[in-house]
Amino acid sequence: MRVWAPVGVLTSLTYCLHQRRVALAEPQEAHSRHPVDRNLLELKMVQVVFRHGARSPLQPLPQEQSQQVEWNPQLLEVPPQTQFDYTVTNLAGGPKPCSPFDSRYHETPLKGGVFAGQLTKVGMQQMFALGERLRKNYVEDIPFLSPTFNPLEVFVRSTNIYRNLESTRCLLAGLFQRQKEGPIIIHTDEASSEVLYPNYQNCWSLRQRTSRSRRQAASLQPGISEDLKKVKERMGIGSSDEVDFLMLLDNVAAEQVHSLPSCPALKRYAQMIEQRAVDTALYMLQREDRESIQLAVGPFLHVLENNLLRAVDPATPPSKIRKLYLYAAHDVTLMPLLMALGIFDHKWPPFAVDLTMELYQHQESKEWFVRLSYHGEEQVPKGCPEGLCPLDKFLNAMSAYALSPEKYHRLCSQAQAIELGG
């Protein structure tokens, strides 16, 4: 169970962070008067949020056994180059919490013998390739990280789900070519207090906003409803079967990335299924409602924000800062995260995609800048004049959605308190 810091400590930290933002804002006004020479920028910190690699579907479609795709256990073979020993602890360094998700997946066997939600060989290779790309960026092109894993340089955190832990292993194997100077510790949290995905279990308000009834209501929206009926009919799925575009996309995306023989109708409508899945998710998230996005990823944005502020604060002891922060998350994390940053492209976040946040300092002016990239492409976040964004502007944009622990808990229980009071 997570133990939040005492309110007094959090209040002091909030005040300090506010003062830091004010201090940053003044000197950085200078950036608008001259273009930034990127050759004079020094990389100080990198944060990478990534989705796990390709996996088996979370739930099979209700089709005849003969029509279902076969998930052969050979798909789970571990490529030798991805082998890398690691240890999992809770956030305080204690024993690994139990994972209710993995227990649930093992209760859902797929045709062929593979369980639901398992990382596959393809997924491991995807993550290894992402690690190699990060190595090229931060070890070879720029001598920023040591060529071997060093726990004093790298902090690793993952949701406590086996496919994410294994995805992280593969990424680290690619990034450091299976070389390490110390133990690899992957930090996880209890499911009840996890912030690396929208936590419906922990947040009553979020659970109400994105309830099962709202997911069902999404499938009844004009356009979505007609398209869903058409796809289900072509696939021979009964109108009473609870299948929506999220479930359809989960299956078609998993089958396609593994080159498995999907149902012809599923393949034919793959593009439309993805778009309608995005429409469904946006309806559930109520994207125009800032509070819904805050409740989904506000606590995680607060973590990312604090990492930036600690890095630029000269009073922060070096032992409290890492050069690289890795966060193994999910598609349901990345979508609201991209929306909060104003860079969502209306496409479903693919397997092994990364959102990378680089912090730079100008060697002459000492100004701070953030550069954001998604899937390896530079982005222009909301509130920023260009891809290289002055830190104060970036923080202002983040602060609209970031939630401190105490504010998150207040918002999460607010609606429940009103209902109980009524």
TrEMBL record:
From the UniProt record, list the reaction(s) this protein catalyses.
Answer: 1-(9Z-octadecenoyl)-sn-glycero-3-phosphate + H2O = 1-(9Z-octadecenoyl)-sn-glycerol + phosphate; a phosphate monoester + H2O = an alcohol + phosphate
Listed under GO biological process in this entry are: hematopoietic progenitor cell differentiation; lysobisphosphatidic acid metabolic process
What is its EC class?
hydrolase
Q: What is its EC number?
A: 3.1.3.2
Q: Which GO terms describe its cellular component?
A: mitochondrion
In terms of superkingdom, the source organism counts as Eukaryota
Q: Which GO terms describe its molecular function?
A: acid phosphatase activity; lysophosphatidic acid phosphatase activity
Family classification: Belongs to the histidine acid phosphatase family.
- Which PANTHER family does the record match to this protein? ACID PHOSPHATASE-RELATED (PTHR11567), LYSOPHOSPHATIDIC ACID PHOSPHATASE TYPE 6 (PTHR11567:SF202)
Role, per record: Hydrolyzes lysophosphatidic acid (LPA) containing a medium length fatty acid chain to the corresponding monoacylglycerol. Has highest activity with lysophosphatidic acid containing myristate (C14:0), monounsaturated oleate (C18:1) or palmitate (C16:0), and lower activity with C18:0 and C6:0 lysophosphatidic acid.
Q: What is this protein called?
A: Lysophosphatidic acid phosphatase type 6
Its source organism is Loxodonta africana
Query: What is this protein's gene name?
Result: ACP6
